[in-house]
Amino acid sequence: MKEKAVLEMRNIHKSFPGVRALQGVDFTLCEGEIHALMGENGAGKSTLIKVLTGVYGKDEGQIFLKGKDEVAIHSPQDAQRLGISTVYQEITLCPNLSVAENMFIGRTSGVCQNWKKMNTDADRILQSLDIPAKATQQLASCSIAVQQMIAIARAVDMDCKVLILDEPTSSLDEQEVEKLFRLMRDLRARGVGIIFVTHFLDQVYEVCDKITVLRDGKLVGEYEIKDLPRVKLVSKMLGKELDDMSDIKGESKPYDKDDQSAPVFEAKGLVSNAGIKPFNFYIKKGEVNGFTGLLGSGRSECVRAIFGADRVLGGTVKMDGKEVKIGKPLDAMKNGIAYLPEDRKVDGIVGDLSVRENIILALQVLKGFLKPFTKAEANKFAEDYIKLLGIKTASADTPIKSLSGGNQQKAILARWLLTDPKYLILDEPTRGIDIGTKIDIQKLVLKLASEGMSVTFISSETDEMLRTCSRLVVMRDRKVVGELSGEELSQSMIMSTIAGGDK
Fold this sequence. Notes:
By secondary structure, the chain is an alpha/beta fold. It contains 17 helices and 19 strands. A 6-stranded mixed β-sheet has the order 5-6-7-3-8-9, sandwiched between helices. The longest helix is centred in the middle third of the chain and has 16 residues, at 174-189. Mean pLDDT is 86; it is low at 242-246.
């Protein structure tokens, strides 16, 4: 039996100054289908979604709903009226309002003036979708995963035919992801067509029925999930056969337990106001090591203490064997430490500044704002690193917020490399970016280490940690519970160390 299309986009074109973002893209979504939209950052996924939801107007092409006549979508309100709803990675609800208020806010129905009916209706919807929340509780008291589900419930209750989930799992742990997947499967069974945008390959193969791949603004193809093995998916996204990723580690040197040289950085009994237990840590010249553990184990809190980003309450720190005081990030920077934070949107980019201004920011802080760089100096710094890291941008003057996530990440990395650090800390440097850029960053880390830089690398993806690090500090419940190197470096050893306590 032929599947019934709920959405058809045909020959969609969209250009911006200097960039052809979409070039003749087709996309079809069927009723009761979870359809992954895949591609590298900059492939055109976000632009296609924004055309569908009326954020951008298309230059050419047609959009059909339920096989009927062509529809015109000029605004998000048009999309909403047509039954197209979007739930974004960043939750756009109001945490200070109740769950019911968030579900009905902005609705034209008079139900919002009847509090009892509004709460009753909200509870009915929550129960029907098996969402563990009460209508009257404040949204802020719900976990991020439940807030995502409430956003979905709001969208579905508004006569949703097409539900777009844009990176909904990036901030969720495994149990929360499974709850979200149960809700997605329930909606699929009810006939809702779901477009799922994600960078997590495992999740695509767990929950999706079909995959559409975009590359450089063009359609690569639409595939049944069973007909597209993961390696083939990656090669289609990259436009080339993927090298064996185990070869990435070829440049790295193994950890040498007998190395008697003084550490570049060493901390003893370090503790901060973020709730981590006092910990010891060191890193040698040219070493890539990392902190690993489950979500909330204290990985990020450890490196924030090292950089002085959280208030340090105790412990001693040495650089090249000499005791130093690091009470704030500027102290760390002056001692040759650089830190790329976990959340690039909040702690990394300055969205309204240009790519150039973002790249030179840390070096300008070290130099002092009363001694600004000349325009020629700033241009040279920016152009050198745009070329070195392959940052895709129309120019150095482009506002960084208009770049794809992967290119924003490269620009922040450029910011810190420009300071020529001895010790570079990278916290989730590849989260939410495409596979090609992930590989580029991993290779760059190993190249920097081979040139003598010390690097601490943190990732939620264990495979990525094993490819890049020669030594891992294992954490559980905000304390260090073990250290692995050499033949101990395996996923099974990491998990058993996390589960088994102190080593």
